[in-house]
Amino acid sequence: MFLDYYRLREQPFGVTPDPRFLYFSPAHREALASLFYGIDAGRGFLALIAEPGMGKTTLLFQLLKRLKGSVLSAFLFQTQCDSHELLRYLLEALGLESRGQDLVQMHAQLNEFLYREAVAGRRVAVFIDEAQNLSDTVLETVRLLSDFEAADKKLLQIVLAGQPELGHRLMRPGLAQLRQRISVAAGLERLPAAETFRYVKHRLQVAGYDGTELFTPAALTLIAERSDGIPRNINNICFNAMSLGCAMGCKKIEAKVVEDALHDLSLESLVQKTKMAPTVTPSPNSVARTYYSWMKTHLFGRKAYLNAVLAALLACLGIYVGARGGASTTRSSSQATHLSSSSTEGTPSSEPQSARTIPTAFSGVQSQAPAETEPQDDSASSLTYVVQPNDTLRDLCLSIVGRYDAVVLEKVRKLNPELKNPNRIEAGQEVRLPLSLTD
Asked: Among the residues of 299-392, which ranges form H helices?
């Protein structure tokens, strides 16, 4: 957790709509003022329409905070419902009993409640968030709620908040009556770069940060560009950048840290990696390649990696030669390791083929012994490696051979005649690498 590392009282880029963290851009100030005065003037229907992530819910909570004490409010967010469920949610939010009642009974109870509140001089407002999810039938039910009125004023103020889809739906001819009743329509705009800088600084200050500028100008410029000025995107980028910065021991967030955080956030790269993952058909050397790839990844230190590879090769070679010489498959590893790749092979055994097969555990490395007349290859002094992302031939040679020079490069060219450019190896490509420079 980076709160202690950056000396913060609380999370500055959280996901909850905390009104304390609301940054009042010009568009946010105008929208809040329009909704506040619309409710104060008893205008009936109001609408707040903006893209996802722009802070609609946070703005509504700020409005509720300002209206506290003067308006009795109900906040509804369960908008995937029918008319009966919507009315039940509304009555429950207002503290009224709704169980076992039909639509007519709930309407009557709500009307009686609103009249009592009006006589007592109290106003009632209902906020419906994510209103774009309401069906046309439920939106018509919402319109009928505006019929609760006295001779001189509306008994219920209704604020519909939703995404641009809500605006498109309200423009349909079938919802013309509802659209005509909306007297105040507010919107939110994306933050320009300068406002994004101030947004980040504002949230850090509210969270208790009092040090020097945490994000460099280059980092903030990148955040503004990649977030598209959407507050939710800004929060996600900053949260991940600060988490990564804490892990890396960075007291100041540079643009490179933001770039890495953006890469971690990219779902497209994850999907692309899944699509590009090669489907490998099992081959005689697949077990060995997988083993060496694991060793390379987890034991990248040159000595540890080289020792582990040599030990594995000697163990496999000892058992392999022992099997060809007619030795029992239960031969101990200590005996096997005394055999070397340069040893002359024994005379062919008269045992049946089943007795001369390699143990099952190593069947993925070598399926059968080569013919006696075949010349000995240099597989014992090299290994086949599957290139991983960010690998370079230089790093691989330094890790395995311990050096990278013209002699090593010539050996690599000899082992890989199809390798045209040693400076360009790609993930998934197979290369043969020397374990030593002795022939």
From this structure: 302-324, 333-336
